[in-house]
Every structure is written in C-alpha cells, then in structure tokens.
Amino acid sequence: MTDPQDLWPDVRPDAAKRLMAAAVDAFADRGFHATTTRDIATAAGMSPAALYVHFPSKAAVLFAISRTGHERALAMVETAAAGPGDAAARMRVLVARFTTWHATRHRVARIVQYELHALRPADFDVVADLRRRTERAVRDLIAEGAAAGVFTAPDTPTAARAILSLCVDVARWYTPESKPDPGTLGERYAELVMAMLGAR
Amino acid sequence: MTDPQDLWPDVRPDAAKRLMAAAVDAFADRGFHATTTRDIATAAGMSPAALYVHFPSKAAVLFAISRTGHERALAMVETAAAGPGDAAARMRVLVARFTTWHATRHRVARIVQYELHALRPADFDVVADLRRRTERAVRDLIAEGAAAGVFTAPDTPTAARAILSLCVDVARWYTPESKPDPGTLGERYAELVMAMLGAR
User: Fold this and answer.
1) Measured distance between the N- and C-terminal CA atoms of chain A, rounded to whole angstroms
2) Candidate from A30, A166, A197 with C-beta closest to B166
3) Which terminus of chain A is less hemmed in, N or C, by CB atoms within 10 Å?
4) B99 and B190 part of one domain
5) How far, in Å, CA of A29 to CA of A14, rounded?
6) Which helix (H) or strand (E) holds A13?
7) Would you call B178 helix, strand, or coil by DSSP?
8) Residues of chain A numbered 81-120 and touching chain B (CB < 8 Å)
9) What is the rounded average pLDDT of the residues A123-128?
10) Among A23, A48, A39, A37, residue whose Cα is nearest residue A110
11) d(Cα A154, Cα A151) in Å, to the nearest integer?
12) Within this chain, do residues B19 and B75 fall inside the same structural domain, yes or no?
C-alpha cells in the first residue's frame, strides 16, 4: 500500500492524503480510465460524497498526485544542482537521489510519469512547465561542467534527456524484490552517468 | 494510427493484424482495463463475434501484441550481438537499432513495455522468458567486451539493465514532434553508451 505520510507530508487534511494514496493504488492496478471516484473513495474508507469535498473529480486527484510528484522531482534536482562541490560531485548526488527516489517510490512514480496523457489540458500545462524546469536544471549543470572542463559530453540536450530517462525508467522495472537495493542502485547509476559524461 | 503491415509482417490472416493494430490504439488511448472487445472489434471494422474467431479474449490480443513485440526485440538484440566487428562495434549497432525502434514504434512499444501487469500468468511467463534472454544477450556482449579489454564497465548486470532501460524509456517520451529524428537519436545514444562502458 502507498504510504500517504511519507509521500505527501505537506498535503492537508489527512483525508485528502488518504484519497490520493487510494487513487495511486487504484490507478496502478486498473489504470486511470477504468477507475471510478467510488473506487477511490471506498479504498480510502470514505463515501463518494466525501471525496467531492476535497476533489471535484478523479482528474483533480490525478493532478494533485502528478503536480506534487513533479514538484518533488524539481526540488530534488535543483537542490542537488545547487549543492557543494564541482559539477561532477553535484551530478553524482543528483543521479543517486533521483534514481533512489524512483526505486523506492516506484508505485507513485509510475502514475506521475505514465499518466500524463490523462491530465486535463490546463493541468498538463502546469506539469509540463515543471518538467521543462527539471530538464533545464540538468542541462545547465552539464553545460556548467563542460565549460569548466569537468565533463566532455558531446551533446548537452541529449545527455540531459538520457540521464533523466535512465532515472525515471527505474519506476517501470523496479519491484520490492529487485536487486540491488535502491541506495546501491543510485550509487551505481551515478557511476555510469559519470562515465557517460566523460567526467575526469 | 498503428500500421499493422509494418509491425506484424508475419501475422496471418490480415483480420488478426487489423485487430491487433486496433487494440494497440485502444489500449494506448484508454488503457487495457477500460477497453472492451467491442471497442477493439469496432475500431477494426468488425463485429465482436468476428474478433472471437481470431482471439478468445482481449487478454489474448494483448498477449499477441506483447509476445510479437518481445520476439522482435530479442531478435534485434541477438542479431546485433552476433554481427561483425568487436564488442564495441556490435554494442553500437545494438543500441542504435533498439533506440530507433522504440522512437519509431513508440505507440506499440508502450503497450509492450507498460502493460505486462495485465498479462495472464502463463502469458507473462512466456514474455518474462523473452525478456530474460534479451537482457542476457546484452550482458554477454558487455562481458565479452570487458574480457577483451574493449570495455571497462564496473558492473555488468547494472550496465546491461541501464542500457536496455535507456532504449526502452524512449517509448515513454518520444512523440512524432520530438527532436532529433529516430535515426539520429539512435546514433547519439550509441555514443553515450560507448562512453558509459568506457569503450576504447
């Protein structure tokens, strides 16, 4: 089961958090289109009417899950990119944390990454902006490292896309039985990215 | 629209191919669970009864799509791994082709890669075996290159997983509007993988 306290420490009230967690499980099991607001409410131990107090529709629940997930991803990437050390040291932290997050939270990450097409147009625009900023932070860090002679990557946009892609795809294949553990996987992926960028 | 001639040149009769193509579009738009056999049959210009002549259920249609997709992926990887040149030359071809395939066929690749959980247990076993063989072919090629001093990758299973992951995730984010074109993306990803493996 998805743990709402862990995923959304800042979402209030608890009932909204419980509904979001129930929706993550329902969307993961059946997909967005086959899930009803009643399914979500029932799984959260509430009535459909109680759901509407917090969310006007199941699309609004999906948006809350997607937006908070993308905000978390952007904050993680920007914090790592602004950390101590040279561009290589910061990229190493960025990749390790982003990979570990997608392994540990693979269930919610799948909704965040794979249900974009189900977002309403205005909601999609908000999420697309968060995604562009996340990708820009990675590109800027590669460009900074290349300018400083720390990286020798041939093509910054493709390398940024590849790095994020590598981390995100962990959500697709990672299960609680997967090896290695999320922390070790993050370290190893950071090593691979260092090699990919030609870090000295 | 998904082009059945391009994807399944060997599937007979044409009606089965048309149904598989209609199912790819329906699953991509609504997800497996929210799609009915009637949706698939109607989109293929057939009656539900005509669908059952070819497939006993929508799960059987999904299995046909998933199995043929995984067989194609395995054949592509094994052919590249057995090609001419040293391990680096063959890995370069493998990554370029596998990436380009996922960019060009992103719609069917999404079904193949993301709907595994909807397969029936016996069908899943068939597909899981194809996936293991695909991953083993990539691991063997890395190990061969490492033994020959062509690669200096630190950890063969993680590198194999990362390489396949990078190629597969293209299906998630690639659209007909994406840059660069599928062939160029394949070449650039091959370069990144060469760096990742420390190819000389």
Assistant:
1) 43
2) A166
3) N
4) yes
5) 23
6) none
7) coil
8) 113-114
9) 97
10) A23
11) 9
12) no
What gap in Å lies between CA B108 and CA B173, rounded to an integer? Answer: 13
Nearest neighbour of B165 by CB, restricted to A153, A173, A196: A173
Say what the ipTM of the complex is: 0.91
Q: What share of chain A is helix, strand, coil (3-state, %, to 5)?
A: 75, 0, 25
Same domain, A41 and A92: no
Query: What one-character DSSP code corresponds to residue A103?
Result: H
Last residue of a domain, one of A36, A56, A76: A56
Q: Which residue of A has its CA nearest to B194?
A: A196
Q: Do A69 and A51 fall within a single domain?
A: no
Radius of gyration (C-alpha) of chain B in whole angstroms: 18
Tens of pLDDT, residues B81-140: 999 999 999 999 999 999 999 999 999 999 999 889 899 999 999 999 999 999 999 999
Residue B36's alpha-carbon distances to A36, B3, B33, B41, in angstroms, are: 16, 21, 8, 9
> What is the Cα A182 distance to its own chain's centre?
15
The reported pLDDT for the residue numbered A200 is 74
- Tell me the shortest Cα–Cα distance from A169 to chain B, in angstroms: 6
* Last-in-domain residue among A41, A56, A71: A56
Q: Which residue of chain A has the CA closest to B30? A: A33
Q: Do B116 and B168 reside in the same domain of the chain?
A: yes
Same domain for B69 and B112, yes or no, is yes
Q: B197 vs A197: CB contact, 8 Å cut-off? A: no
Q: Dig out the tokens for B49 from the structure.
A: 């009864």
CATH number at residue B23: 1.10.10.60
Residue with tokens 């950390």: A83
The dihedral sign for the CA sequence A119, A120, A121, A127: negative
Q: Which residue has the tokens 């922390």?
A: A183
Single-letter residue type at A22 = A
Q: Which of A192, A194, A197 to probe the B interface (max B CBs under 10 A)?
A: A192
Supply φ then ψ for residue B83, to 5 degrees.
Answer: -75, -170
Query: Domain range holding B6?
Result: 1-56
Cβ(A32)–Cβ(A115) below 8 Å? yes
Residues of chain B with pLDDT under 70: 1, 153-154
Assess A195–B contact: CB distance below 8 Å, yes or no.
Answer: yes
Interface A:B, Cβ pairs < 8 A: 83
- Looking up residue A169, the CATH number of its domain turns out to be 1.10.357.10
B69 torsion bin: left (phi>0), alpha (psi -120 to 50), beta (else): alpha
